[in-house]
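Section 5: illustrative case.
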């Protein structure tokens, strides 16, 4: 299964999910490959699974594995080599007064209120509209993962949260939600820029960004974080060499 080595016992089981509606293309169905969620060694497997193109959602570690479709391309930023483009520099300057703070991944009323406002504005009819405290915990806060919240605040007010997993050599951007009234501030981009700063500060090599999908307007922003690496199922290479 590509690069990376497992802990001494490598008999981890993999499961295929049944078909379900695709979260990116409504007219398509999808299937996922999932590491056994009952395996107590999952925390040990997780760093290697990230290097194989897997992601975490709640306590599940999964990778899209759809028949006849390879649209979801795992991507990551080699943080030592990242240089912001003109648009990203403008975003950083526009938000220079925003303070970033890494805190424990513990839900507060403030987090939940911002999350619900974000979903109501950005994901209407997407199946997440009615997420409450339980869904927040199940989706964002894993029981076994080393997760932190990167809070972005302006004048003390919470305006964005980047849910971030820590593994020995990398950070993984799990999910970001922000104040929908500040959409023009490009807070999603700002969150990634601040995660890159965090990764550099703690001497991590990469920031995993999940999946990039060519031609999908909600995913295209990831391509702008150059140099971006993509996983082709065997190794990580510059995205231009993987997808052209």
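Designed sequence:
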């Amino acid at each position: 299964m590509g690069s990376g080595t497992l802990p001494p016992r490598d008999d981890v089981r993999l499961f295929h999910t049944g078909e379900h509606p695709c979260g990116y293309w409504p007219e398509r169905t999808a299937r996922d490959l999932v590491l056994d969620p009952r395996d107590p060694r999952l925390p040990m497997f997780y760093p290697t699974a990230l290097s194989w193109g897997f992601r975490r959602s709640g306590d599940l570690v999964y990778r899209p594995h759809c028949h006849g479709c390879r649209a979801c391309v795992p991507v990551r930023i080699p943080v030592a080599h990242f240089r912001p483009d003109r648009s990203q520099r403008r975003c950083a300057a526009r938000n220079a007064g925003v303070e970033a703070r890494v805190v424990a991944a513990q839900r507060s009323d403030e987090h939940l209120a911002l999350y619900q406002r974000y979903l109501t504005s950005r994901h209407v009819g997407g199946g997440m509209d009615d997420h409450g405290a339980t869904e927040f915990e199940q989706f964002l806060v894993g029981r076994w993962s080393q997760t932190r919240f990167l809070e972005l605040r302006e004048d003390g007010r919470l305006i964005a949260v980047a849910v971030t997993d820590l593994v020995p050599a990398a950070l993984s951007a799990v999910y970001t939600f922000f104040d929908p009234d500040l959409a023009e501030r490009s807070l999603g981009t700002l969150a990634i820029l601040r995660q890159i700063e965090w990764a550099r500060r703690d001497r991590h090599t990469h920031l995993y960004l999940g999946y990039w999908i060519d031609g999908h307007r909600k995913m295209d922003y990831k391509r702008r974080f150059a140099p971006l690496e993509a996983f082709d199922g065997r190794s990580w290479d510059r995205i231009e060499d993987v997808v052209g």
